[in-house]
Amino acid sequence: MLEKTLGVHTDALIPKYHSKKLSKRFVCEQNDSQYKVAIFGTCYGEFNDPDTALDIIDVLRHNNVEVKLVQKTQCCGMPKMELGDLESVEAYAQENIAPLMALVEQGYKLMAPIPSCVLMFKNELPMIMSKNKDIKTIGEAFYDPFEYLMFLNKEGVLKTDFKSINQHVLYHVACHQRVQNIGLQTKKVLSLIPDLDLDVIQRCSGHDGTYGVRVETHTYAVKIGKPIAKKISDKTDLVLSDCVMAGNHIAHISEHKVKAIHPMSLVKIAYGLDKEKT
After folding, report:
1. Which residues contact 184 (CB under 8 A, 6 or more apart)?
2. Is the separation of the CB atoms in 44 and 116 below 8 Å?
3. What CA–CA distances, in Å, run from 185 to 46, 106, 153, 240, 263?
4. What DSSP character marks residue 84?
5. Which of 46, 79, 131, 194 has its CA 20 to 30 A from that of 19?
6. 49: buried, middle or exposed (CB in 10 Å: 19+, 13-18, 0-12)?
7. What digits encode the pLDDT tens for the residues 49-98?
8. CA distance linking residue 248 with residue 266, whole number of Å
9. Helices 145-155 & 50-62 angle (0-180, nearest 10)
């Protein structure tokens, strides 16, 4: 049915849609911390994976960071940019400038749970709209989640009292995180977790948003992702990826049944804040 009506491959993993979206589940908590972050929920975080965004929020709050959820936002524009629709990209950006700038002016750093969205604000929009000073300011305020945790670590305020996790995990470094040129910040944080056996893979998962689900491209997405999926063995306990879509795709095409989660969800477990996901 999906193949005929929407062009979605029958073997593709389709993201779930949540009626209790992120903006409905977010609970505002005030504190007087000097560290303040505003989460740009993203389309995927809002409707398909609010749990990961909430895990990021829980980890930040555990480290005494004040967290807000950016309200009344539009798509970051990455899907439209990949289609060459720069007119829509700029229109979306114009809608996002006001709420994001208001928070930056209040001293908030900005963050998104999806690497593509962080990349969009950090790199792509400042190039596309190079004459827009607000876009440049917003880009400079944007952080990858683990980049921000390592910032806290350098400040000497990151809590590192992690519980032991004696598991073997395959960690996939998402492409759109790598091209941010921030280094392996996720690996640095995960390496602080005692007894965690970490296997790091730096190559494309093949998913790339709709590329991984469309009828005409799904086969290629599987072929590209197979070298990573073959790294999964019966000893692999978890697949991690900063891009949840990529992680789910890798686990889905593997010959072994394994669960994929965001690395921040594992950090939350290591803090003893969530014991259910493993």
Report:
1. 173, 200
2. no
3. 24, 26, 11, 14, 11
4. T
5. 79
6. buried
7. 999 999 999 999 999 999 999 998 999 999 899 889 999 999 999 999 99
8. 15
9. 0
DSSP run (H or E) holding 129:
none
**Total count of residues recorded for the chain:** 278
SS3 109: strand
- Residue type present at position 130: S
DSSP state of 64: T
The CATH code belonging to domain 160-270 is 3.40.50
Tally the C-alpha atoms within 13 A of residue 274's C-alpha that lie toward its C-beta: 19
The CA–CA distances, whole Å, from 212 to 144, 159, 162, 218 equal 23, 37, 35, 5
**Overall pTM > 0.85:** yes
What average pLDDT score do residues 178-202 get?
95
